[in-house]
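Session log. Operator J.P. requested a structure for one protein chain; no other inputs attached. Running the standard single-chain path with token output.
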Amino acid sequence: QVQLVESGGGSVQPGGSLRLSCAGSGFSFRYSAISWFRQAPGMEREFVARISSTGGRTNYADSVKGRFTVSRDNADTVYLQMNRLKFEDTAVYYCYAPEWGYWGQGTQVTVSS
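Structure written below.
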């Protein structure tokens, strides 16, 4: 059974940090590029970051560049470290395996004072 499971969301004040995790199973997760997307209320889902299958290449949306870092370990987990969070980072965050078309169920991130 294919699964992408996000975790690590929560509520944080502006300027704070969170680390999201995406755990994959049921397919060649560790050999797949993985992307993070997010969707705020009333908005379309937007790209946040991507990491290659080896971890050697990363890409970021301009809105998060310099604040977010995507990484992966040698097992079946991809991380999104989010620093200096802003109100506008509030959204449901999803991980996505683009070569397979698989989405996770999402994890809520809320930035509020």
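Operator note: The CA atoms of residues 99 and 106 lie 19 Å apart.
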